[in-house]
Amino acid sequence: MAAKTDESSPAVSSRKSSTPAPSSGRHQLRPVKFDYADSFACTYIVSVVAASIAELATYPLDLTKTRLQIQGEGAAHSAGKSNMQYRGMVATAFGIAREEGALKLWQGVTPALYRHVVYSGVRICSYDLMRKEFTQNGTQALPVWKSALCGVTAGAVAQWLASPADLVKVQIQMEGRRRLMGEPPRVHSAGHAFRQIVQRGGIKGLWKGSIPNVQRAALVNLGDLTTYDTIKHLIMDRLKMPDCHTVHVLASVCAGFVAAIMGTPADVVKTRIMNQPTDENGRGLLYRGSVDCLRQTVAKEGFVALYKGFLPCWIRMAPWSLTFWLSFEQIRKMIGASGY
C-alpha cells in the first residue's frame, strides 16, 4: 500500500502541476486585448469618432455662435452697411435657415470634421499620456494644478496642429452671410479656401490667427479636460458611484459650462482675426494681432462684447461635451478598454 501511494503520488502531482497550464495560457491573452483597447492608436481613433458624432449633432450651434461673434465688427468699418441683421441666437439660427436654407446650418462642417481628425485625437491622447506620467496607471485622480497643466498643454498643442482646418472652417461659415449682404464670395469650397490662403500668405498663412486660436484651445481644454477628469473622479470617490452614464453626464455638463466661461473671450478674438480680409501679403486689414483685436473690441463695443455668443457657445459646448464623452466612454467600454 505504501508503494502504491508512493507510485501514485508523482502521477497526482503531475496532474496537479499540469492543470493550471491551460488557464495560464488563457490568462496570457487577456493583457494583449487590454493593451490593444487602451493603446495610443485605439484611443486616438475612438476620440476622433466620438468627436465627429458630437460635431455633426451640434454644428448648427457653432455656425450660429460664429455669426453672432462677427456681428458689430463691420459697423465701425462701414457706414452704409450694418452687420447687425440678427439680434440673438434664436433669431440668427432661424434667419440663416429662412434666408439661406436649412442645410446652410451645416455649412463648413467638412473642414470641421477634418479638424477633429487632428485636434480631438491629439488632445485626448496627449492628456492621457501626461496623466499617466503623473500617476501610476492613469486611473487615479490628479491634483487640480497637475490636471490643469495637462489640459492647457494638450489643448494648445492639438489646436496649433489643427489651426489650418479651423481657419478654412471659419471662412466657409461666413460665406452665406457675405452673399446675402451683396458682397462677392471669397471662397467656394474647402479646397478653394485652402488654395486661396496659401496663395495669399504662403504656408505660414495657414496659421493666421493661430495665437488666439491656441490661447482659446488652451483655456477651453483647461475647462473641458480638467473639469471632466476632476469632477468625474470627485463624484466617484465622494459619492462612491461606479464609472457609469450618470457620472459621465454630470461631469460632461460641468465641463461644458466651465469651458464656455473660459474660452468665449478668446473665441471672439480668434473668430474675428481669422475672418478679417487680408492683403496680397496675407496681413490682416482690420487687426494687427490678437491684442489689437481685443483692444478694439472692448473700446468700440464694450467688455460685454467679449462674451458675445456666450449663450450659443455654452449651449453648444454642453451638448457637444455630453455627446462626446458619452460616445467616447461607451465605445471604449464596448471594445474592452478601461474608463478614461
Give the secondary structure arrangement, pairings included:
Layout: H1 2-18, H2 20-37, H3 40-70, H4 89-100, H5 109-134, H6 144-173, H7 175-180, H8 190-201, H9 210-238, H10 245-275, H11 290-301, H12 310-334
Helix pairs in contact: 3-4, 3-5, 3-12, 5-6, 6-8, 6-9, 9-10, 10-11, 10-12
List keywords for this structure.
340 residues, mainly alpha, 12 helices, 73% helix, disordered N terminus
* Percent of residues in helices: over 70%
Order of helices and strands: HHHHHHHHHHHH
Structural class: mainly alpha
The unreliable regions are 1-34, 75-84
What is the CA–CA distance across the termini?
61 Å
Number of strands: 0
* Biggest sheet statistics: none
Total helical segments: 12
In terms of DSSP E residues, the strand content is under 5%
Mean pLDDT: 78
Alpha-carbon Rg, integer: 26 Å
Shape: globular
